[in-house]
Structures are given as structure tokens and as C-alpha cells.
Amino acid sequence: MVEEATNTNIVPWAPPPSDGPEAKKRGPPTPPLIQSSAAFTRDFIPPDYLVDGILQRRFCYSLTAKTGTGKTAVLLRVSAHVALGRAIGSIQVEQGKVLYFAGENPDDIRMRWIGLAQDRGFDDEEIQVHFIPGTFKISAMRARITEEMRCIGGFALVVVDTSAAYFEGDESNSNSQMAAHARMLRSLCEMPGGPCVVVACHPVKNAGGDNLVPYGGGAFLNEVDGNLAAKRSDSSVAVHWQEKFRGPDFTEILFGLRTAARVDRLKDSKGRFLPTVISYPMGDDAQEEMAARTRTQEDDLLRVLVQMPEASQASLATALGWLMRDGKPYKVLVARALKSLEGAKLIKKERDGYSLTANGEKAYASLKPKSRGGSND
After folding, report:
1. What pLDDT is attached to residue 19?
2. Three-state SS across the chain?
3. 158 shares its domain with 183
4. pLDDT at residue 145 above 60?
5. Domain of 100?
């Protein structure tokens, strides 16, 4: 039989006295580790939204998209709306200063910003969007950036374009280095004003439309509050979230893309206009119109494929009358429509062209007979 050990020297813990000479020596009492329900909930901080229901101040987000999707055009547009305090479609936006890290191709960003300024009619001398062009080590320049931000005033939004341009490590496949990189970017939320931070990111290699996560995988994703994904379809970009998002769900935001062909300040040395691409938020009517136009284009291509199954993209564009401003065949538009038809399993790629699937044959048979002779009926 084992007897219970007893120790008469053990004294039950009790909080130290809150007054008297000993209390003065100890200083203020240490708060208890265990909190009541009321004490715990008193520390709740309500969300401070910059873009209502989506982007919060003092939160860090990635915006992941493939090259050429239009993420820079979208980020510049959002920056302008924040600086002007203008809604993005029906989504309310709080006004505030913006700092844009233009690390990846600053000349292209300059052109897009000049084009957007003319398109939206704002004065780039007055609008409170500030830029830092070029790449550098943010950690080494942080004190200087913080001081300059403090002199300008608190900022509401910081955009980093792109994550890869400011990576300070020497091995992008290192989980520890990518995690440290993400923490460094996240720390920008502590800059003057407690800004929302949005970091443009390239996706993992060979990413599909349903796998648009930042390069660096889980190591990077674990350190951000949400990952926004941008997917392009013809001349529009849909922005929603993938894999992680701290906050309520929201309906995807659709931005249209258009070419600003005649911008007064964008000319080459011979005086010729330099086109640039800008984005704009699309309302419900515009979305329906674009969807209808895309459907019509796909139907037209389906008709032509029946007649010219082995034609090149250039030949298909010419037959459809899809031409660019310089009169050359709009092969990119054909490629996108082909990809959409293939994704819908209406056509399949053959060695020498395309053929209609069984579903494609049904879709073709359902088209109006009067339109089967060509795409320009």
C-alpha cells in the first residue's frame, strides 16, 4: 500500500497584497493570465475596412495572378479610388493616402498611371498617391521610408508590385526565406497610418485558374491575411479569393480592361501616341453585355471551325473579321475563344486543327440557321 505524501510546507498561492510598503516596491500588480469572458471580449477591435467588406486596415493581402492578367492595372485603379474616396462599383471605399512600390517595370506603371489620370480626369499633381520606383532592400530603407511617410501623413494603403521584385533572400524555394519575406512585407502594416498592404504576387509554376496561390506556397500564405486571385477572360479580370481569407465572403469583383490609345502625355520621340492598358470596375449591365459579346464570339468561332477545322489562328481571325487597329489578325482573341470552347468541352484539339465534340455538335445545331453562313451576319 502506497501512502500519500504530505508536505506541510506548501502554501496555497494567493495574490500579493495591493497596498503597503512591499506593494510599492513591487510596482503595479501583474494582471492574471486567466481572463473572465467579459475581460476577454473587452479587447475586441472592430474591423476597420478600407474597401468595404473586403480589405481591412492593418491587414496584409496577396493578389496573385499570372503574368499578363492585368493585376497592375487593377491595383492602380484601386489606388486611385482609395486616394479619391470613390466607390468601386457599389463597394464603398474610405479615402486615404496610398504608397505604391513600383518595383517591377516602373516605366510601364508610369504609362498606365498617366493613362488612368487622363481617363478618370484627376490631376496627378494633386492626387494623394505616392510612388517609390525601382527595387531595393525594404529592410535597409525602412527607417527612411517610415520617416518620409510620417512627414507626408498617415497612409491608408500600401501596394507592393511585386513580391518577387523585393525578395531579399538568395533562394526562392526556401520555405524559411519565403516565410521571412512574407513577414517583412506584413510588417508594412505597422507603417504610419496602419495601412492595408496588398502585395502583387506571381503564382506557383504551371498554376491553373483554381490554384492561384503566391509563389512560396504555404510558407508565404501562412503569413498573410488573405489571398486574392485575379483571373482574366478576354478583356476582363475577375477578382475573388482562393485558399485563405480572413473575413466574410464577398462576390467576385469584375474589372474591364481597355486600351487608352490617345493619351496626350504618352507619345514617342516622333510624336506618335503610345497605347497603354487601364482597368475599370464593371457594373452589372456591363458584365451582362460582355458575357453576351463573349458568347456571340464563341458561337461565331464555332461556325467557322465547322467550315475551316484546320485553319490557323491568323486565318480564323481573318475569316471572322477580328482585326487589330493596325489591320493585323487578332490571334490573341481567337486563342482565348478556342481555349474557352475547349474548356466547355465543345471542341477538342487534333493534330492538324480542331474538331467538334458531341456536345459541340449539339451546340452548333442549336445555332440559328440564318447565321451559319459566316460570322458577320
Report:
1. 63
2. CCCCCCCCCCCCCCCCCCCCHHHHHHCCCCCCCCCCHHHHHHCCCCCCEEECCCEECCCEEEEECCCCCCHHHHHHHHHHHHHHCCCECCECECCCEEEEEECCCHHHHHHHHHHHHHHHCCCCCCCCEEEEECCCCHHHHHHHHHHHHHHHCCEEEEEEECCHHHCCCCCCCCHHHHHHHHHHHHHHHHCCCCCEEEEEECECCCCCCCCCCECCHHHHHCCCCEEEEEEEECCEEEEEEEEEECCCCCCCEEEEEEEECCCCCCECCCCCECCEEEEEECCHHHHHHHHHHHHHHHHHHHHHHHHCCCCCHHHHHHHHCCECCCCCECHHHHHHHHHHHHHCCCEEEECCEEEECHHHHHHHHHCCHHHCCCCCC
3. yes
4. yes
5. 49-282
